[in-house]
Amino acid sequence: MAIDFPVEISALRSKYASIREVSDLDRLRGEVAELSEQAAAPDLWDDVEKAQALTSRLSTLQAELDRVEKMGSRIDDLEVLVELAEGEDDADTLAEAERELSGVRKALDDLEIRTLLSGEYDAREALVTIRSEAGGVDAADFAEMLMRMYLRWSERRGYKTEVYDTSYAEEAGIKSATFKVAAPYAYGTLSVEQGTHRLVRISPFDNQGRRQTSFAGVEVLPVVEETDHIDIPENDVRVDVYRSSGPGGQSVNTTDSAVRLTHIPTGIVVTCQNEKSQLQNKAAALRVLQAKLLEKARQDRQAELDALKGEDSGSWGNQMRSYVLQPYKMVKDLRTSHEVGNADAVFDGDIDGFLSSGIRWRRQAEHAG
Predict the structure, then answer these.
(1) CATH 3.90.1310.10 is held by the domain 5-116
(2) Positions modified as N5-methylglutamine (predicted)?
(3) Which residue, of 27, 89, 92, 196, has the greatest Cβ tally within 10 A?
């Protein structure tokens, strides 16, 4: 069936106009100009941390502005390509126009999703923690599969990751792991992954080949920034050091370099053992603890608002996705009903469809509330 290019391009322009309106380009340009002026100050690098934060923010906003503005040019170029193909009745150029139409659609969808990430911490980097839950060794193996899935997703997008802590299970897999995804909007994007994930498969650890259901929990937190003012008095934290555990052979296992921090007022415990030195592990663990306290403060504020509304607000993230590998293959989000038959691709990091549908679902749920 032939593509009706004028109708398709008109739809693209309409969607693009909505995105431009929501993006508030005048505000973006003003902020970019202001930060550019500050970045030109001769004493900028006297305070290295402040300079890095400023230049990083400027880079993020400039990229966001460019993405929106260049999309208009891309739609214009597509229209010219179509006119050229149809005017010369050139099948190859028409096929190129079809491919570009598909690419522009995808880019606009991505841009639209970004406009939905307007929460308090959505623009931040993310701290992801994965824990094995019910299901024994299968759950530990599943937790490791999920960790690889998110790391592969990050790698595909060119995002840097840093693993802070990995607690290995005895037979296979992991008990838990915490890692950072260092990219703008990583928290807003990945926060829809929070909740309980369920795996159904023939267990490779069961010599009778029985089907096993196992569970793993995913927690996503925003990375703390200097402006958050999360002060942790030294007396509120108990510091324990111990020898790092792992599959064996690494130099980290030869010294008491691993660090466990216990926040006494809340009982929150974090560990870090993947850095080479005790000092580095303590600094990384402190960053994770700050992120957890930031999230707890946000949840406490939300609970107060819900109490004022008279609502019983449960966790929307629980039991959020099923990965079925037996008797058929299907990965299905239980909140959005988005499903994919290629489970291998999902475990290899192809989760953009789930992320997009999750972000849209969350926005609808917020508006309905």
Answers:
(1) no
(2) 250
(3) 196
Instruction: Starting at the earlier edge strand, list the strands of the sheet with 258-263.
Output: 237-242, 258-263, 268-272
In whole angstroms, give the CA distance from residue 88 to residue 36: 46
> What letter does residue 162 receive in the DSSP assignment?
E
Which amino acid is residue 243, in one-letter code?
Answer: R
Domain residue ranges in the chain? 5-116, 128-192+203-318
**pTM, to two decimals:** 0.76
Cβ burial of 279 (10 Å; 0-12, 13-18, 19+) is exposed
- Which pLDDT does position 74 carry in this prediction? 95
Q: Please list, in sequence order, all residues whose beta carbon lies within 8 angstroms of the beta carbon of residue 22, skipping any fewer than 6 positions away.
A: 115
Q: Name the β-bridge partners of 127.
A: 180, 221
Residue 304 has pLDDT above 90, yes or no: no
Residue 366: both structure tokens together: 């917020």
3-state secondary structure of 213: strand
| Inter-residue contact 134 to 200 (CB < 8 Å) | no
* Domain at 128-192+203-318: CATH code: 3.30.160.20
Residue-level pLDDT at 316:
35
